[in-house]
Amino acid sequence: MSSIVIQKISKSFGVTSVLKDISLTINDGEFVSLLGPSGCGKSTLLRLIAGLDVAERGSIVVGQHDVTRLHPKDRDLAMVFQSYALYPHLSVYDNIAVPLRMRRLNVWQRLPGVRLFSRSQQKIEREIRQDIHEVAQTLGIQALLPRKPAQLSGGQRQRVALGRAMVRKPEAFLMDEPLSNLDAKLRVHMRSELSQLHRTLGATFLYVTHDQAEALTMSDRIAVMMEGSILQYDTPDEIYRNPSDLRVAEFVGSPRINMLQGWVREGTLELVETEQKTLANSYLALSVDAPHGLGVVVAFRSEQCSLVLAGQAALQGVVTHCENLGSDTLVHVRAKQAKDPIIVRIAAQAPQVKLGTLVGVSLSMLPLVFSEQGPRLSVRVTELDEQPVAPVLAFEIA
Amino acid sequence: MKTKQLVAKKIRLGAVANWAPLYLLAPALILLAMFLLGPLLAVLGLSFTDYQLGSKSLNWIGIENFIELYHDKNFWRSLRNTALYSGAVVPVSVLLGLGVALLIEAQKSFKDFYRTIFFLPVMATLIAMAISWQFILHPSFGFLNLLLKEFGLSGHNWLRTESLALWVLAAIGIWNQFGFNMVLFLAGLVSIPRHLYDAAAMDGASSPFERFRLVTWPLLGPVTLFVVVITAIRSFQVFDTVAILTKGGPSKSTEVLLYTMYAEGFEFFKSGYASAVTIVFLVIVLALTLIKTRYLEKKVHYA
Asked: Alpha helix locations (H) across chain B?
C-alpha cells in the first residue's frame, strides 16, 4: 500500500497535447477518482502511471520509489481494464495465476511440463494455489475457477479481473472504467462492492470514470479533468457544492446545473435575457469583485430552488415539461434569462403544476457565480442603494 | 367436416410453400451435382473398372485397382515423396509466414510495401514462375550457380540430382506459399485485442518472447490451425512445378501423388488405375478438411 505522487506530467500524441502539467497526490489507502468526459486525458494519465505509456515530462513516485522510467512490471501496480482483458484461452484459475507465475517462477520453471520433476516449482505452485483460493473466496468466485472467460457473465468477468489485480497485493490499484461494460443494475451493485473491497483491502485506488455517479458514490476525493488539466481536486461533497469552475459545475450533478446569463455592472450582478440579446432589468442583490462589463454565469442546482407564484420572483417562465422520477419531480421552466430550461426539483407529493403555467423560480440559497471563462467568482449579498426597477430575485437566506 | 377441409387446405398450402426453398436451391444444387458430385462419383466408379482412355468398353473389376496400388512400389514412392514434400513445406512456410507477419506488424514503416512483396509469389502463376525457376536453377548458365561461383562455391545440377530435386521443389513450394500464410497471420494478429498486451505488461510479461507466449501465440491458435491445414492440403496438391521442372525424375525421386495420377491417366491411359490414385488422394485431403472443420468450429470463437 502506497501513496502516489504525480508531478508536472505532460504527454502529447503528435501535435495534440493530451496532458498539460498534471500534478496530483493520492494518499496511502485513498480512493481517488479521475472524472471527466471522454477524451479529457484521464485514461492516458492512468496509463502513464501504470507505465503502459511514457510521459514526456514530469515524475511519478509510488511510495518511496520514483517509477517514472520503470517498466510496468517493476512498478508493482495492478490495473483493471474496462474490457476486463482476461486471457480467453486460460481458465479463471490460470488467469488469476498469471501475475503470480510471472513474478515467482523463473523462465525455466514456467515451461510446460517442468512441474513434473521440479520440486521448487511444485512448492511455488502450491503457494500460488493458496493465494488464488484466498482471493477467490474474498470475491466469491471459487466455483468459477475452472471455467473459461467466455463462459462467464459480465459481472463475473469483472470479478475475475479484480481477482487477477488483487492476488499479488500491489502497491495500488488502477481502474480504467471497470464498470462501464456492465448493465445499469449490476453497475450500481458493483459500486457498493468496490467500496466494500476498498475498505477491506485498505489499498490505494485510482479509479477512472466518466460516470459522475460512480465518482461521487465511491471516492474519498475526485479529480475532475477536462482538456488535459485537472480543474478541481476535492471531496465529492465539495466538488458538488463548491465547484471551482463552471465546467466542473456543469459536468457534475444530475440533472445539469441551472445556468443564467448575466454580467457585472459596477460591482453588482445583472441578468441578461438571452432571447432578445438585450439586458433585462432584473437585478440580483449580489455584489462581485469583478471588472465592469464581465460576462458571468449564475448557476444553481435543481434542489436549491423552488417554484413560487409568478410575480413573486424576477425569474419566471412557463412550465414546459415535468419529469416524474417517483421520489420527486423535475419541473422544466423556460425563462428568458436562461438558454436551457431551468429545472426545479419538487417533492413528488407537492401539488403538481400544469404545463403552460407561468411560475416564478425562487432560490433557496446563494447561487454559484462564474466568469464566462470558467473560474468561480466570490459573491456576497449587498444592500442596494437605490430601489431596482424590477423586483429582485427572491432569496430565502436563513 | 369443416375443420377437416381447413386442415386439408392448410396442408396443401403448406406443401406448396415447402417447395419454394427447393426451387431456390435448385440452381446451386444442379451446378453442384454437375461439376462436383457428378465427376467425383464418376471417378469413384471408374476406380473400380479397367477403363482405358479412349477405349469403347470397360469391365467392373472390383477393388483390383486398389490391390494393384497396394503392391505398386511406384505408388508408395510417390506417396512417400508427397509426404516428404509436405513435411518440409508445411512447417517451414507456416513458421516463415508467422515470422514475417510478426516482423511486419512489429514495425511501423513500409507495411504495405512488405506485405505486397511477400504476397507477390502467391498471386503469380506458378507455371510461369516454374519456368523462371528453371532458368535460375539451370546448371550451366543459371543465376544460382553463377552466384555460388562468385563466392567460390561449386554449383549443382539442382533438378537432375536425385538427392536434391525434391528439396529444391519444396523450396519453390515454400517460396510460393508462405506469403499466403503471412497474410492470414497478419489478419490474425490484427484481431488480437490491444488491451491484452497491456494486461500482459501489467502482469509482468516484459520481454517480447513472454508477450508472445502469453498472448500472441495462444490467440493465434485457431489461425495457426487453419493455416497448417490449408498449407497441408495445398502441398499435397503439388503438381505444376513437378510437371514443368522434373516430370517426376530423376529416377522417380520427385514423383508425387498428383503427378502419378496424371502420368497413369494421360501418359499410359490407365484411367481406371489413375482414378484409384485420385481416390486415395481425395481421402487424404478429406481427412485434413475434417480435422479443420472439427477443430476450428470448436476453437475459433474465443468471445
From this structure: 2-32, 38-46, 64-71, 73-106, 111-123, 126-137, 143-150, 165-190, 194-203, 208-211, 217-236, 240-241, 257-262, 271-299
Domains in chain B, ordered, with CATH?
A: 1-46 (no CATH), 64-299 (1.10.3720.10)
**Regarding beta strands A31-35 and A221-226, do their DSSP bridges make them parallel or antiparallel, or are they unpaired?**
parallel
Taking the alpha carbons at both ends of chain A, their separation in whole angstroms is 45
Cell of B52: 482405358
A185-to-A17, A180, A182, A219, B210 alpha-carbon distances in Å: 37, 11, 8, 20, 39
Q: Tell me which DSSP letter residue A64 carries.
A: T
Looking at chain B, which residue has its C-alpha nearest residue A90?
Answer: B218
* Chain B interface disruption, residue of A43, A62, A71, A98, most B CBs within 10 A: A98
**Any residues with CB less than 8 A from the CB of B39 and at least 6 apart, and which?**
none
For residue A197, give the H/E element and its range: helix A184-201
Q: Is the pLDDT of residue B2 over 70?
A: no
| CA-to-CA separations, A115 to A54, A89, A101, A122, B278, in angstroms, rounded | 37, 20, 12, 6, 48
Looking at residue A393, the DSSP 8-state letter turns out to be P
**Model pTM?**
0.78
C-beta of residue A337 within 8 angstroms of C-beta of residue A271: yes
- Burial (CB count within 10 angstroms: exposed 0-12, middle 13-18, buried 19+), residue A238: middle
At A274, give phi and psi (nearest 5°): -70, -30
Cα distances (angstroms) measured from residue B259 to each of B77, B101, B242, B248, B255: 12, 33, 7, 7, 6
User: Which residue in B214, B301, B302 is closest to A98 by CB distance?
Assistant: B214
Q: Which of the residue ranges A17-31, A241-255, B140-154 would you say has the lowest mean pLDDT?
A: B140-154
What phi and psi, each to the nearest 5 degrees, are found at residue A104?
-90, -30
Taking a C-beta distance cutoff of 8 angstroms, is the pair B33, B248 a contact? no
Cell of B204: 509482468
Strand-pair category, A57-62 with A342-347 = unpaired
**Cβ separation B204–A103 shorter than 8 A:** yes
Interchain contact B193–A (C-beta under 8 A): yes
Yes or no, beta carbons of B218 and A73 under 8 Å apart = no
Mean pLDDT, chain A, as a whole number? 84
Q: Which residue of A has its CA nearest to B204?
A: A73
Q: Answer whether A9's CB lies under 8 Å from A55's CB.
A: yes
β-pairing verdict for A295-300 and A278-288: unpaired
Å between B106 CA and nearest CA of chain A: 17
3-state SS track over A258-324:
EEEEEEEECCEEEEEECCCCEEEEEEEEEEECCCCCCEEEEEECHHHEEEEECCCCCCEEEEEEEEE
- Does the CB of B302 have a partner CB in chain A at under 8 Å? yes
Mutate one of A81, A87, A100 to test the B interface: name it (highest B CB count within 10 A): A87
pLDDT digits (tens, 9 = 90+) for A16-53: 888 888 899 999 999 999 999 988 888 999 999 998 98
**Residue A180 three-state SS:** coil
**Domains of chain A, CATH where assigned:** 4-250 (3.40.50.300), 255-381 (2.40.50.140)
Contacts of B210 in chain A (CB under 8 A): 102, 107
